[in-house]
Amino acid sequence: MRFVFLFCLLFFANFENSFAWKTFHNGRTVGGNLGEPHHNNFMKNDINDFERWFSQNLDHFNPTEETKWQQRYFVNDEFFDNKARNVVFLQIGGEGEASDKWMTQGAWIDYAKEYKALCFQLEHRFYGKSHPTRDLSVKNLQYLTSQQALADLAVFIEKINVQYELSPDVKWIAFGGSYPGSLAAWLRQKYPHLVHGAMSASGPLLAQLDFKDYFRVINEDLKTTSEECFKAVQQGTQQINTLLKHMVGQRKLNKLFNLCDPLEKTINNPMDISNFFETLAGNFANIAQYNKDNRIGKSATGNITLDTLCNIMINQTIGPQVHRLAVVNELTLEAYDQKCLDYKYDNMIEDLRNVSWDSEQAEGGRQWTYQTCTEFAFFQSSAYEPQLFGNNFPASFYVQQCEDIFGPKFNESYIGRAIERTNTLYGALDIQVDNVVFVHGSVDPWHALGITETKLAKAPAIYIEGTAHCANMYPPKDDDLPQLKAARKEIKKLIGTWLQQ
Ligand SMILES: *[C@@H]1O[C@H](CO)[C@@H](O)[C@H](O)[C@H]1NC(C)=O
Ligand SMILES: *[C@@H]1O[C@H](CO)[C@@H](O)[C@H](O)[C@H]1NC(C)=O
Ligand SMILES: *[C@@H]1O[C@H](CO)[C@@H](O)[C@H](O)[C@H]1NC(C)=O
Ligand SMILES: *[C@@H]1O[C@H](CO)[C@@H](O)[C@H](O)[C@H]1NC(C)=O
């Protein structure tokens, strides 16, 4: 998702000179939406200690298709009770490269120590180094679906049970954050004979074309930080709209926002203007979604928080609100090492059309966009009122991207049917499961598509006031909010209960 759905931020160094690179697209941050845990005493390990490969089916749903490919996984047996051999934890990979750092860090590792679990992480097909096909052509991407990914996990579990000679009463507990949070719940739903319980963090369960509530939560986040900040952003947007109306204003915006291409040449291209506003909105969304989480050290936006942005937005010394928006923009450009802001729609589309595994967007941008166009949509439109960044990026803006990137077939009626299918196959918010805990944070816009209130006693929800995307998965810190500390404890207790059953 242009700024958001999950991802770790290892990749920036490679992209220093690429203007067209979008760091946050469709709610997905470059690298994926689950960041990496804080890097403390990790140095003693290297990736080879954990990395393994296994032979996976290309198509689980067509018995005549026998093609295989190599899927990557990580294993850590340091905490495993070798005698009992009956507790296994599985972290589900998602829309970015899997990180071996999770094999020694994160809340789940603390749980693994407690319950003596064997720990695995399976990289999601088509992301990271798990390449089922020669390239990312539309024809090959037919094998990129959440159903195939869940079946990958099922086959993996069966194979590991044999290969590691696990006890017949082995209990697998799945963990996932963001899209893998959804997968964790769906895995328990679809394969209850293989997976005993699941921790589903920040998982959107409802596929939706116009995810306008995304910006409802961003509005609330800004208002919670300060009402004045919220108003300043709105006023800044209005000032941009005024400046856009004439050439002197357009030139002023070129300079203020450090634009790679002059606005006066593209003013009649509505897609460029939409992309410009969406990028500005993304500057805020990308920070709000991860506000004060524990991804320290690895995230490009590092210690930038909503407080940082709002302190800029209410600082009158900087000048009118549009100037303050420009300072926020500069902060983001610097964080991602961008020399100027590339808002050209065609540049973005061209990058996303590249089918090569060597392209920049193959880190997951193209793949995740494909999954939004064919399964989930989740289009983070500007339709929520009151509008913060104008109404220049409606859901139709994202539908157009699907058509332009993947072909005219991927139009609104196609996406509508795709969403319906997804919600039918998984049950959306009416999912019937037990031994699943749904965890969300109030600051994270993704909670709007998830389960935040307990509806089934055996599938409780934990809604954490004041935390962001996947916050409970990162390693604990002393200054974590008390309700976050309590949530981690509660999850540990629940897992203990499941393991006793
Ligand atoms: C962010 O952290 C860096 C060091 O990691 C520090 O130099 C910088 O001042 C910090 N910025 C803010 C806004 O706190
Ligand atoms: C406001 O912005 C000015 C100019 O950039 C800066 O010198 C000042 O420190 C800022 N004030 C606060 C309270 O951040
Ligand atoms: C796709 O990306 C690769 C690697 O960056 C590049 O060499 C190639 O020219 C790109 N293909 C197209 C059609 O732009
Ligand atoms: C979408 O494309 C199909 C052909 O693939 C076409 O029949 C249909 O009318 C199109 N729908 C819209 C809303 O454009």
Description:
The protein has helices at 107-115, 138-141, 146-163, 179-190, 213-225, 227-244, 247-256, 270-289, 306-313, 321-335, 345-353, 365-376, 395-406, 412-426, 482-500; strands at 51-57, 68-76, 87-92, 118-122, 171-177, 197-201, 208-210, 377-379, 436-441, 461-464. 39% of the residues lie in helices and 11% in strands. Helix 6 crosses helix 10. The strands form 2 sheets. An 8-stranded mixed beta sheet has the order 1-2-4-3-5-6-9-10, sandwiched between helices. A two-stranded parallel sheet has the order 7-8. Helix 4 (179-190) links the parallel strand 5 and strand 6. The chain is α/β, with parallel strands linked by helices and 501 residues long. It is built from 15 helices and 10 strands. Residues 1-21 and 39-44 have low confidence and may be disordered. It binds 2-acetamido-2-deoxy-beta-D-glucopyranose (NAG) (4 copies). This is Serine protease K12H4.7. Belongs to the peptidase S28 family.
How would you sum up this structure in a few lines?
Keywords: Glycoprotein, Hydrolase, Protease, Signal. The chain is of the alpha/beta class. The chain has 15 helices and 10 strands.
